[in-house]
Amino acid sequence: MSRSYLPHWVHWLGSPPNFYRFAGALRPWLMAVALVGAAAGLYGGLVLAPPDYQQGDAYRIIFIHVPSAWMSLFIYATMAVAGLVALVWRVKLAEVIAMECAPTGAAFTFITLVTGSLWGKPMWGTWWTWDARLTSELVLLFLYLGVIGLYNAFEDRRRGARAASLLALVGIVNLPIVHYSVQWWNTLHQGTTVDFLDPARSSIAPSMLWPLLVMALATHLYFFASLLGRTRTGLLSLESGKQWVRALVDGQPAQTTGAPT
Amino acid sequence: MNMASTAQMVVDRTSVLVRPQHASTFAACTALLRRDFVLAWRRRGELFLPLLYAVIVAALFPFALGPDPELLARIAGGVLLVIVVLAMLPALESMFRTDLEDGTLEQWVLAPQPLALLALTRVIAHWLTTVLPLVVVMPLLGTLLNLPVKALPVLIGALLLATPLLALLGSVLSALAAGARRSGILMALMLLPLAVPVVIFAAGAIAGAQSGMPYLAPLTWLAAALVLAIVLAPLACAAALRIAVES
Amino acid sequence: MAHWFAMGGYAVYVWPAYAAFFIVLAWDWFAPALRRRRLTRELRGRIARERTRATRAPRAEAST
Question: Taken in order A208, A209, A212, A214, is the CA torsion positive or negative?
Fold first, then answer.
């Protein structure tokens, strides 16, 4: 008899109909907390925090730029881990999760580049520069687009997911490059200011740090909520021939309006 | 049957079990190399197309930017690298496609020889037949673009390090895309982000040689990346080929 | 209020940045819903077609 090293609930959750229901129940709560957190973080950042002595009020872009940058890296790592599970163990749910990470990851990377550009213009005098951090972040965006493009080029969604997961894993080398670029090269972009292991040691004022960390938490929760929703839709698409999907679709009355689930 | 012939039969049968039933890995790889060379020789006219493409694109730059020799000299190294990457793209795209379509790839996957080594052999053959002529022509194009002669050895060195690296990266991507619908831009979209650091280091080395600055550091980075790629890329390529072959 | 909105003169940079943040994330939140609506519509159509085919076939058999 084969023993599993994973707890029973992991196996339970791996089944598409179970995950679908679980995700549907959890998603609104995650989004609600994310919105509350964002409201608190933005209030703290835009209203409570004082202007920076060097950058004035322009620095307030940090409260969306830095969390978005952190998310662009975190989502890629999530995508790579899910992709690894999909490649090695061929878990259907992992394939869907990996592929559904990519659009949100690309969105956050795009936001990072745009907000960074809008912050760079008043501070550095230029909309763009080809320094190591900006270039590697742009490369990250292209990696996301490459994963999305490769996935959509396959007729068989499951094979496409595995191929795109392999591509994501090949590109994972970019993640340490983005993170350490400000340490390894002389860049225009500023160095590391937030020390996660000891936030008190960070070289940023506490009144600016707490809204930043709250926004980071809010964006994480938003990503999980978004991922759960996208995975639900992805599962419907992948399992459209199965009985549970048909029962679900059939049982629903025709909706003309209604909140997206 | 007497004891002697029975004993002989047992010895024969066991020796058959002990004797390898398939060709050695080395023999398989050399056979593959020979096949690729023969096939490349049969379509040797086609191999000139990337060269022609490189020459035409290189000629476009003086037309577009004006013949100012100082300007051309400044951009020559980078332009040559970009041309090499673009000229390599079409051939990279079709590295595994024909073999996938006619079933040869399935034989590779089923073969007892390690798939990664077969893939590496394919990359070597591809580089020797398609890319090496390009590398040979590049110094000539460099002179056309006013690259100073003292930078030419570094140009050749950078290309000899960068192009196999690009071919190895391209082989993984080509294997990934082989099973997908044909999409012209997909290969470029996937390769160019990964080619960015290669281009940066190679062009940096050439620019360094031009201006008398140190050029060895970027070249050693390229060499390190190349060594890593020789080991890892065939493994990734083999995984991708297995995905491409399954239906 | 207007003073806060002016963001020390940097309003033309700060507010478009925040707008980009919210607009892109709104797209990320709502786009899957459109895809899901199209999916359920197609699936319902497919189920309806199969149902009519199923009801038609036994009727044809009964008549022979």
Answer: negative
Model pLDDT for residues B14-42, shown as the tens digit of each residue:
655 555 566 788 999 999 999 999 999 99
The verdict on a CB contact (< 8 Å) between C16 and A104 is no
CATH architecture of A14-239: Up-down Bundle (1.20)
pLDDT of residue A198 exceeding 80, the answer is no
| Residue from the list A146, A149, A163 with its beta carbon closest to the beta carbon of B179 | A163
Q: What is the mean pLDDT of residues B51-66?
A: 92
Cβ-Cβ contacts under 8 Å, B196 against chain A: 135, 139
Nearest to C8 by CA among A110, B69, B71, A61: A61
- What are A34-56's pLDDT values in tens digits? 999 999 999 999 988 888 888 88
Q: In chain B, which residue's Cα lies nearest the Cα of A171?
A: B194
Q: Which two tokens stand for residue A209?
A: 């740090």
| Residues counted in chain B | 247
- Residue-wise pLDDT tens digits, B190-242: 998 889 889 999 999 999 999 888 899 999 999 999 999 999 999 999 999 99
Tell me if chain A has a CB within 8 Å of the CB of B78: no
Average pLDDT of chain A, as a whole number: 88
Does residue C10 belong to the interface with chain A, where contact is any CB pair within 8 Å? yes
Amino acid at C55: T
Averaged pLDDT for residues A147-176: 92
In the Cβ-directed half-sphere of A90, how many Cα atoms lie within 13 Å?
A: 3
Give yes or no for C33 touching A (CB within 8 A).
yes
Domain definitions of chain A by residue range: 14-239
Q: What is residue A252's predicted lDDT score, i.e. its pLDDT?
A: 55
Cα torsion B234, B236, B239, B244 to 10°: value is: -90
Q: How far is A136 from chain B (nearest CA, A)?
A: 9
Residue A56: strand, helix, or coil: strand
Tell me if chain A has a CB within 8 Å of the CB of C48. no
Would you call C43 an interface residue with chain A, using a CB distance cutoff of 8 Å? Answer: yes
Question: How many residue contacts between A and C have a Cβ separation below 8 Å?
Answer: 94
ipTM (interface predicted TM): 0.86
**Averaged pLDDT score across all residues of chain C:** 86
Report yes or no: B196 and B78 within 8 Å, Cβ to Cβ.
Answer: no
H-state helical runs in chain C: 2-6, 11-63
